[in-house]
Amino acid sequence: MRRLVVVLFVFIFGRPCSAGFIVVDDFESGNLSNWIIEFYGEEEASELGSITIVDDPFNRGQGNVMRIDPGVAGGLTHNVIGTLPIPRNAQIEGVEGQKSTFYFKMAIPSAGETAGRVHHFFGLSTEDADSVTHFSRHAVQARIIEDGIIQYRDEGNVSDSFQPIAQTSHDLEVYYEIWFVVDHWNFQSSMYIRGGSDFSIQTRVSVDADFRFQSLENISRILIFSSAGNIFNGVRGVEALYFDDFMIDPSGENLNFSTVRCVEVVNSNLVNISTRGKVGPNDAGLIGGFVIDGNSSRKVLLQAVGMELENIDDTFKLSDPQFRLVPMISKDDESTHMIIDDWDDDQSNTTLVERAADVLGATKLVPGSGSAAMLVTLEPGAYTVVVSGVGGAEGIALLEVYEYE
Ligand SMILES: [Ca+2]
Ligand SMILES: [Ca+2]
Question: What is the 3-state secondary structure (H, E, C) of 52-114?
Fold first, then answer.
């Protein structure tokens, strides 16, 4: 029986797990079964909109992403709406003095020479959003409308019109990061963007925008919708929009980058961990944790894979991964840490790694690739693996941990 030893957490980027974000959906499950997908103006659509999961079409290392396609309106009104119930531990409560943070990534495709024509809303809501007819009862929201440039808009009280908060020509096929810092007690949110050339640094684009729907009920829904035609203003969305990494920190303002992420995995029956993420310089590593339970030692295959990764442009890959294996029982004693660099430095290790990877179905490493791997016998206990780039290199790497025997 070869199975993964129990996984504690999958990866962190940059900072410890206390970064605080809870991943609500990163689409790596490959299904949308938690999402409620609905249509508005269905009878007027000449082509229905859709929400699907696709492999990141821009090869930015996002893995699976959500694609929301507005469809084609026959008349003026057709919307596709996706609502995701937020797990209880990530819901935003209305507590005096308490802020929370909603984070996600978003990319706009190119459409020939120009930016995709998009007309989308994204935000948060209470349970009322479960019904299409109540989709306007959202709390926190922004909107992008294409008319040559993209306008982000916020919204005040229901009687107010949308206010443009930022206007930009988006870089295409790039994931923008968006943070809403939410004050659910005062019904206000501030929005930050990072990405592309206009927002190369994290930029606050709205300050204390009022909620549209002011209720102290928990914010318990993520709400995304795309319009192929709006009866009120005639704006038509044409291109799809791509989303990934919906995360919430219910406990505070959290302007960390997504790459500061901490995923708790409770399923110990996984066949392997294949966790992929961006590795940055210094402590901005990709970190995996696992536990060997029971009383006997186990043989474990650890691999930090760079250039062998598929479906990512070479330029985004971590060219020379290494990893540090840290027994948590002696984490402060560096002499007990093991640092592994190139998997084929030592012929005996190379042979063992090749054989184990073959049996386990792990990524097959290529001689001279710079990837790091080792077959190691470990005593029971908790371990952390920190993947980094030799010489401070940055890029996407995959950490694999397998129990071998
Ligand atoms: Ca993803
Ligand atoms: Ca290496």
Answer: EEEECCCCCCCCEEEEEECCEECCCCEEEEEEEECCHHHCECCCCCCCEEEEEEEECCEECCE
Within the chain, all domains assigned CATH 2.60.120.1160 are found at: 20-249
> What are the tokens at 201?
């640094």
Q: Residue for token digits 């219910």? A: 250
Fold of 6-13+262-403: Jelly Rolls (2.60.120)
> Rounded mean pLDDT of the chain?
78
> With bands split at pLDDT 50, 70 and 90, how would you rate the model's confidence at 335?
very high
pLDDT single digits (tens) 167-190: 777 777 888 889 999 999 999 999
96 Cα: distance to centroid of ligand 1 (angstroms): 34
Give tens-digit pLDDT for 21-41: 788 888 988 899 899 998 888
- The residues pairing with 317 across neighbouring beta strands, listed in sequence order, are 396
25 Cβ contact partners less than 8 Å away, ≥ 6 residues apart = 34, 35, 66, 84, 222, 246
The 10s digit of each residue's pLDDT in 247-273 is 999 999 988 764 433 333 222 222 344
CA 276 to centroid of ligand 1, rounded, Å = 10
In eight-state DSSP terms, residue 233 is: T
Nearest CA to 114 out of 139, 158, 149, 68 is that of 149
Residue 147: exposure state from Cβ atoms within 10 A (0-12, 13-18, ≥19): exposed
Separation of CA 305 and ligand 2 centre (Å): 9
CA of 188 to the centre of ligand 2 (A): 47
Topology of 20-249 in CATH? Answer: Jelly Rolls (2.60.120)
Report the run of H or E that residue 150 belongs to, with start and end. strand 149-154
**Which ligand is closest in space to the CA of residue 344?**
2
Q: Where in the chain is the domain with CATH 2.60.120.380?
A: 6-13+262-403
Closest ligand by atom to 263 CA: 1
| CA 28 to ligand 1 centroid distance, Å | 5
Q: What is the pTM of this model?
A: 0.63
Report the sign of the C-alpha dihedral through residues 197, 202, 208, 214, in that order. positive
